[in-house]
């Protein structure tokens, strides 16, 4: 299964690449990762100034290491970068089989504590819709789009089992939550939500446009709620991301290819 992993920033991309380099070297330790990195992932130029990171081909029969792209922060940048990489691969007759949004994010306590690994069973656009006198309406309810993508359950289960992750909804926002009131509002609107991030829905939209299955994997760097940078644990969350991706190729190798995703329908705006 040929996969594209999309992160927001270079630090997340490098955490993913370090894990996959170490796995390719047959050593999950830090020394192995550092040694593999010297001859491992290399940037490949894409249109638009993007740099796709790609590993050399491994031994025959070994799981293929995913390509990794840092596409930028937010759903629009994520969708644009993902679409660019998918289109370039399709034009080169080397299409991907799976797209993965990955990185760190805010966890909803107590279900997703600091350092937790979360695999999304729903990738939800938390603030794409309209405010009305009767409350918030999603684009699905408005009749001109989709507000959620649901990854293949077999893929979700396999990756969660391999990484020790918890499964549940991950919401995509354009503005990071900074208050207890907003955190409570999101939790009430999206029962069971585990993580808030900024790119998953954009990645999922691009994947759906190409008829490809999608996953989202997040590690928790902070609690969703009042903004307190002193409480953030970005380093440990990136380390957890590296740890999660060490088993990623093997997890995918044991899962049958997901069925093609139907192209998104055309909607006519009615309100």
From TrEMBL:
- Pathway note: Quinol/quinone metabolism; menaquinone biosynthesis
Annotated family: Belongs to the PNP/UDP phosphorylase family. Futalosine hydrolase subfamily.
**EC nos:** 3.2.2.26
In Swiss-Prot or TrEMBL terms, this protein is called Futalosine hydrolase
Which HAMAP family does the record cross-reference, listed alphabetically? MqnB
Q: Report whether 4Fe-4S shows up as a keyword of the record.
A: no
Per its UniProt record, what InterPro entries does this chain match?
A: FL_hydrolase_MqnB, Nucleoside_phosphorylase_d, Nucleoside_phosphorylase_sf
UniProt cross-references to SUPFAM superfamilies, sorted A to Z? Purine and uridine phosphorylases
Keywords for the protein's UniProt record, in alphabetical order: Hydrolase, Menaquinone biosynthesis
Which reaction does this chain catalyze? futalosine + H2O = dehypoxanthine futalosine + hypoxanthine
Q: What does this protein do?
A: Catalyzes the hydrolysis of futalosine (FL) to dehypoxanthine futalosine (DHFL) and hypoxanthine, a step in the biosynthesis of menaquinone (MK, vitamin K2).
Keyword hit for Nucleotidyltransferase = no
Pfam families annotated for this entry?
PNP_UDP_1 (PF01048)
Boundaries of every Nucleoside phosphorylase domain copy: 71-225
């Amino acid at each position: 299964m040929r996969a594209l992993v999309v992160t927001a920033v270079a630090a997340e991309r490098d955490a993913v690449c370090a894990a996959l380099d170490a796995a390719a070297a047959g050593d999950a330790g830090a020394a192995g990762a550092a040694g593999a990195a010297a001859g491992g992932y290399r940037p490949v130029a894409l249109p638009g100034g993007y740099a796709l990171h790609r590993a050399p081909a491994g031994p025959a029969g070994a799981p293929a290491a995913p390509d990794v792209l840092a596409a930028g922060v937010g759903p629009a940048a994520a969708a644009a970068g993902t679409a660019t990489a998918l289109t370039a691969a399709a034009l080169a007759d080397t299409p991907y089989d799976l797209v993965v949004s990955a990185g760190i994010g805010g966890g909803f306590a107590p279900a997703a504590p600091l350092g937790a690994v979360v695999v999304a069973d729903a990738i939800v656009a938390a603030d794409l819709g309209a405010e009305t006198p009767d409350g918030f309406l999603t684009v699905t309810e408005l009749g001109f789009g989709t507000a959620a993508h649901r990854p293949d359950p077999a893929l979700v289960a396999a990756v969660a089992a391999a990484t020790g992750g918890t499964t549940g909804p991950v919401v995509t926002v354009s503005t990071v939550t900074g208050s207890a009131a907003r955190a409570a509002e999101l939790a009430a609107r999206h029962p069971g939500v585990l993580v808030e991030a900024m790119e998953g829905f954009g990645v999922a939209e691009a994947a759906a446009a190409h008829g490809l299955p999608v996953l989202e994997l997040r590690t928790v760097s902070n609690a969703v709620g009042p903004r307190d940078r002193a409480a953030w644990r970005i380093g440990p969350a990136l380390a957890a991301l590296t740890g999660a991706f060490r088993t990623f190729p093997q997890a995918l190798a044991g899962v049958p290819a997901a069925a093609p995703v139907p192209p998104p329908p055309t909607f006519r705006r009615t309100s």
